[in-house]
Write a structure and sequence with these properties.
The structure is a homodimer of 209-residue chains. Chain A is α/β, with parallel strands linked by helices and 209 residues long. The first copy, chain A, is 43% helix and 18% strand. Chain A has a seven-stranded mixed sheet, sandwiched between helices. In chain A, strand 5 and strand 6 form a beta hairpin. In chain A, helix 1 runs antiparallel to helix 4 and helix 2 crosses helix 3. The longest helix of chain A is centred in the first third of the chain and has 19 residues. Chain A is elongated, with a radius of gyration of 20 Å. The interface between A and B is large, with 63 and 64 residues.
């Protein structure tokens, strides 16, 4: 399975995965595409198409085996490939992400946090230590970490990014509301929370009236 | 401007908006599409197309007026329309979002937080009070809040969602890793953080090798 999946397909597959996890927890063996479609308020045809992309065919009138489909999604999205990452910035958002146990299920190994505040350095959050930012280059090499999850305040975002790049970080998951200026070989994923939600409010005309 | 903009266009427009905010702070008057494209590692043609959708034309060799383009994006994405929202769940993520001042610039008015933990109730986070979850129906009516930002632990997500709907909430920005089961008239935006990032790692083959 080496074809490139579109962003939207990957996004939906992870939602199907959440649903399957629930089903399996509840010991429900089979799931049908209309059941998935209804939970996500999407079209049934869409769900069937996405799952067909994985090369999996359900049984007529019974649907898909929840466990098999879950494993197939995990293989397709490489959940078993360990992706070592650092959280840079141990504020509320950094701490929330450090406590987010789901990361591991997806193959993300958050091996440490970094901050420059003396009160935070040395703390442990969900068994992950907060280190002095200065130690990042050494620890990036030691742990083989190439991914940084950036949760520093806006004012430090660019400066810290340049330091991360010098330290060998190649992939930055940017939670700051800044657009970072980086060389083209560095991959940035702008989380852009507000942009995501605006997609929703703009097209649904959410307002106070 | 009543045409429906695609999710991707809206997402990029908010990123352009961040860049323009930086430019204006730095008192740079003009910005060109190649400058935007370079910062975002996207194609220049794409940027020009997006901006043309807004009906704005830059000046040859000078580019766009940063201030005008910023205002135009704000109008298009309805930043000035106040969208009253509650944060439900005052854990780390809820607190991080409550402290995120940028929401206001985008028209989101986070008027209160809710939790059921006695230690949290009554606290103020960024001048927003944490109320007992039981008070939500009354306050939703009082403030005219129709949006809830859901940041409760996974185990309570479905139960709290049902309570929100009974309280008149119509739009749920779901940060929990659960797919919520809601009636079709309720709008759910699944933030699905990990799904977003996986789009990035799957197609770039990020791994530890």
């Amino acid at each position: 399975m080496n074809k490139i999946l579109s962003d939207k397909v990957i996004n939906r597959l992870t939602l199907y995965h959440s649903i399957l996890t629930d089903y399996i927890e509840k010991k429900i063996e089979y799931i049908s595409s209309p059941q998935i479609a209804e939970l996500l308020h999407v079209d049934n045809t869409q769900v069937r198409k996405d799952i067909a992309l994985l090369g999996y065919k359900g049984k007529c009138k019974v649907g898909y085996k929840a466990y098999d489909l879950k494993v197939l999604i995990e293989e397709t999205l490489k959940f078993k490939t360990v992706k070592t990452a650092f959280i840079v910035g141990a504020g509320n958002l950094g701490m929330a992400l450090a406590k987010y146990d789901n990361f591991e299920a997806y193959g993300f190994n958050i091996s440490a946090l970094f901050d420059n505040s003396p009160e935070k350095i040395g703390q442990k959050i969900n068994e992950k230590e907060v280190f002095n930012l200065k130690e990042l280059p050494r620890l990036a090499e030691k742990f083989g970490a190439k991914i940084a999850i950036l949760t520093v305040p806006r004012a430090y975002a660019q400066e810290v990014t340049e330091f991360l790049i010098k330290s060998g970080i190649q992939y930055i998951w940017n939670f700051t509301p800044c657009v970072l200026n980086v060389p083209s070989e560095i991959q940035i994923w702008n989380e852009n929370l507000i942009g995501n939600f605006l997609q929703f409010t703009v097209n649904h005309s959410v307002n106070d009236n």
